[in-house]
Amino acid sequence: MSQHPAPHRRIVAAAAASATLLALAACSTPGAAESTPGVTDETVTVGTHQPLTGPAAAGYSSISAATKAYFDYVNDQGGINGRTIEYVVKDDGYNPATTQTVVRELVQEDEVFAILNGLGTPTHTAVLDYLNQNEVPDLFVASGSTSWNQPEEYPYTFAFNADYVVEGAALAQYAADERPDATVCLLGQDDDFGDEVVEGAELVLGTGGLAEVQRYSVSNQDVTAQIGAMQAAGCEVNLLATVNGFTALAVGTAAKLGYFPAWYSSSSGGDYPTLVGFLGEDLAPKLLQGFISTNYLPFSPDGEWTALFRQINDEYNDGAPFDGNTVYGMSVGYLFAEALARAGDDPTRESLLDAVSSGELVGNGILPLAFGEDSHAAYLGVGITTVDQGVQDFVGTTYALEGGDVVTVEAEPVPLENEGVPAP
Amino acid sequence: MSETTTRAETTPAEATTPGEAARASPRMPRPLRTLRPPGTPRLLPRLTGLPRLLVVAASLTVLAVAGTFLLDPYRNYQLALVAATFCATGGLTLLIGLSGQLSLGHAALMATGGYGYALTANALTEAGVDGVARFVVSLFAAIAAAALLGLLLGLAGARLSGPYLAGVTLALVIALPAVTSVFGGVFRGDQGVQIAYDGVPPALRALIAVEQWQAWVSILVTAVVITWLVAIRRGRLGLRMRAVHGDETAARLAGVRSGRVKVAAFTVSAVSAGAGGAVLCFVTQSVSPGAYTLAFSLLLVVAVVVGGLGSIGGAAVGAVVVVLLPWLIGTGIDAVDLPSEVEQRLSGNLAVLVFGGLLILVTAVWPGGLAGALRRRRIRSSHPAAPPALHPIPTEPER
Q: Where is the region Disordered (chain B) (predicted)?
């Protein structure tokens, strides 16, 4: 075999060159954090994972834009404690595998202060361990799974939504109150979302109280079989544990089958303007007349929060369609700003968590927040909304879950102060 | 493909016909040394055969592990992903390049490994087993599950060929989400299966971050799998796979049992894909159908074609491309500061477009893939005066 000296030298040279390159690109492991990640004298950087593409995009991609618009508004008013808020949004396509990658990128590359409002039960479940192991504040997860409320196991994670058990119980209670003799069924996503709404509904209706439970998978955009089974079972009230896209799909598919039951949706899939986007301006008001949904945010068309958010939406969000996602995204931004304001002049990850678990945050929901030392749940109650003539509003019934029992409570909306910019 | 032809043509004495080369003799010729194109430089010229392979593999592994110290945690995480993907592309390049069977469903085999790993690991966690024992047992369970599925596919593969086989494997990867959804009690539907967090062993905790530890595990598993693949490629089975691919009838006449060779090739590639899926599950602590889509499956094929069919080095290049290109494109899009709507539209989609473009470009310009292109440069530069006819680089696939 050839043993020319020249190639040898070349290989050695190449090896030396690549070693130098690698050394130049050197970084330390494990990195010692000298200062709080994501916080400078002028800025606070937070990150999120959102489905900007993929099966859940159409229902939720506007949330992060709304949050960003609210932060832009706050920044223009001088920021929080003199710092502007930067919001880094990464697309995960509602795919848990991608969430893994983008959240690592946010934490390790972009060095965010906290993860804010990561969206989705299956997606966020994939990074729950990672964030808590790395002691990254994981605030206000955009999902109603009860997984986020485990202070012992996941001290860094806090929920934002009213949890699905609460929503399931409230929907079932409303069905029991309004339609006591109806056959109640459920269509749910085949993950924790579906499981927990079933759990909540069975708190009220008893085990087996749901005449029919059908499940769908997000990766399969066809629910004809499920809707057909519900029709065959004679379901009159259908509880929905569905994301917006599948709510529209379920209602549309049923209409095609000539089947018109009452629909009771959880807040995650019950946003009327978003559903109009799916079903069309002409069909939606007919198909969704009387559509019941839960909500815990200030969504009344004539409310002061809605007016402010509408104004911010026009000024900072290019006048994007104003819907429940807009209110949701801006409410998330408001709650974070409030937590940041309470975290002190030099916020650290610890002081941020202390601020949230102090129990002093009020947020802007229709019921008080449940955050505290041993509770990482945000809202333990929801109001019932209905759609009438194309307008979705609260009917005035509000339920809360108190130790396994559903009770009727009075809504306690938070008044708007300081033009929607939290002060410390 | 280019590699096999190059070798066969440069050393006609060694492998005149597939049959002669593959004749079952107690002492197999050592194809590695004599089949090498003359003039290619090499380190450690005295060492040959298996010892050489082991030494090279060990040094590369040590080098890769040492390299993790130069990387920050996120790069190490990416390195771990590359290593795991390399496991799968290594087996796939052998399957397509050497045995000539096209699998479009390799992501499903990886997923089988991932689920095998996750379910076993969870069962073991419940039984109170953890640490190295849990990892090793789960890894073997993953490999066994993938191998079984690979064997079944291989049995179909031996009876089918070309587009029909590709169709079967394609169906497999398309059916994956439905399978996980129908058996939701076990596979947890789209949410997938999560496994317990596996931190850095206490002894190393002060020294390295968890991502570096994950990179080490990935590199070690991949090193073992790839070394095994290289040994197969150079050994008797590799020769028979080439023979069957080259001319199945001739190979049969020469006594090669082509059906068995094909099944073996499928099983081998399934084992490596399963190991890759298991490592991926270990690194990300979860497995879900969303991680193993049809697009990912096709990307694996693109990776081995772009890297160079049949070439292990090409498979490594392909793995790097699959993992890093989407990230690079994403970073690029972020840097350009496009309007958010355009950005949204591009994210996720542009990577697929670039992969398509890359595939066309590479097959048009360097039919031997990137590995083939590099080899050609090397041969040219070490023999500037040699007429090209002596070292033909085929532009047509065999047969």
A: 1-43
